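Pipeline run #58 for the internal structure catalog. This entry was flagged by the ingest filter as a single-chain record with no existing model, so it goes straight to prediction. Upstream metadata was stripped on purpose; only the residue string is passed forward. Reviewer on rotation: M.T. Logging verbosity set to normal.
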Amino acid sequence: MRPVPTREDVAMEHILRACGSPHDFPDFALEATETQTDASGRTICIRRDACRTCGTVSVSQWQGPLPEGPGQIAVVRRYERPEPGDVPGLAERTRQVTDAEFIEFLASNGFPDGIPEDFAPYRPATTRLDFVLRVRAGQFMLLDRGRSLGDILPVPPSAESANLIDAVPGAALFWPPIHDGELPLTVVLCPADPGPDRSYARIAELSCRFHSGHVVLRELAGRERELPPLPAGHGDYRLRFHTADSGCLLQLWGQPRTKPLYPA
């Protein structure tokens, strides 16, 4: 399913094009920000630096450790497209996107008729809902309306993970602290980040793109619970999942995607 663009997508393309090349990277230093081990057991040093103008990431790799004393070392560099949430000034540029720019961007990306009529509208209100889910095999799902459990089960290799959550576009799998039984779950749909609830034992969050803004909670046993339309319509959302023995809390709000977090 091709995702329908959002105004954030338009703003991001404008920022990336305006920056162009050369990028405004910090001064390079041969100091790794992370390491990996290759198939031969060698240590690969990796350094990531983000352009201060557009967020494009320069990824430098070399084989470590560094030689003692004078010497040469081969450094390979490539560039990665940034996550939208890591693009400087994205929110401000999004507010500047005109209707004409948005319509033109939609048409150039395969949607000449604009946003489909059955997509969720922008509705900046907070909604709180309480459920009791029947958990089986220690999991439940949040899916685009009409999506199959096969989109997230079994968890595909491409899924993003935050320990308590696995997600692919249009589908998220949650791992509550019970294996089988009834789970009290509160879902809060928010127009902005409500902040984590530190009264819960474990918290994790990641990004997920929902294609239409209409989603359902789905039990492995088969029941579906349709949620109200998501407050920011279609596009990227942040999912923050809180767990405790007494129940769970799921917060959702519209936010350009970025890396998973583990607030607690």
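catalog note: The radius of gyration is 21 Å.
catalog note: The longest strand covers residues 181-190.
status: ready for reviewer M.T.
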